[in-house]
Amino acid sequence: DVKVTQSSRYLVKRTGEKVFLECVQDMDHENMFWYRQDPGLGLRLIYFSYDVKMKEKGDIPEGYSVSREKKERFSLILESASTNQTSMYLCASTNREGGELFFGEGSRLTVL
Amino acid sequence: LAKTTQPISMDSYEGQEVNITCSHNNIATNDYITWYQQFPSQGPRFIIQGYKTKVTNEVASLFIPADRKSSTLSLPRVSLSDTAVYYCLVGEHYGGSQGNLIFGKGTKLSVKP
Hints:
The complex is a heterodimer of chains A (112) and B (113).
Chain A: E1 4-6, E2 10-13, E3 19-25, E4 31-38, E5 42-49, E6 56-57, E7 65-70, E8 73-78, E9 87-94, E10 102-103, E11 107-111
Parallel strand pairs in A: 2-11
Antiparallel strand pairs in A: 1-3, 3-8, 4-5, 4-9, 5-6, 7-8, 9-10, 9-11
Chain B: E1 9-13, E2 18-23, E3 31-38, E4 45-50, E5 53-56, E6 61-64, E7 70-75, E8 84-92, E9 102-103, E10 107-112
Parallel strand pairs in B: 1-10
Antiparallel strand pairs in B: 2-7, 3-4, 3-8, 5-6, 6-7, 8-9, 8-10
């Protein structure tokens, strides 16, 4: 069974903390994505990566960075968390031929 | 990048056919159209994908007119378990370096008994 695993389902952090959200896929996919989802706004793309050590900005990269040191792992980093980054974060992957995006179950982050 | 527009919400009754239309006026030649379903507290999951004309699988049909500026997801005989948010996604088939995959705001479908 193919899988995208996000390290934490729920996190609570304080303003100014550094936050790491980890995502691992076991499908040997080249492309990985980080989205955030907020009520009424749908899914918005933060960053994506099409290869190890490669990254591209999505629609809303401000306040975030990413790391792709290994093919199976794509990390989202909030250098200094702020309350407006309280959201559901979704990781996804797809192979180089495109087609279906596979999503993780999401990480709900609350910044106090 | 192709932006998509969908109705915010739709209501239906069990057993009815539901059609959700997505508008994507600036779709590019290499773009595919993909639909996803999302239940609360879960990640979206793939329903169907197409490039032109009609595609059908075991759960839905996708109708794409010749100009490709819109697409319609058709769910036959919906049940209560089809209550979910449905997203239309337009983007490069190769979701990698040639472009990124942008979702719209989705359509919240409510199926009533």
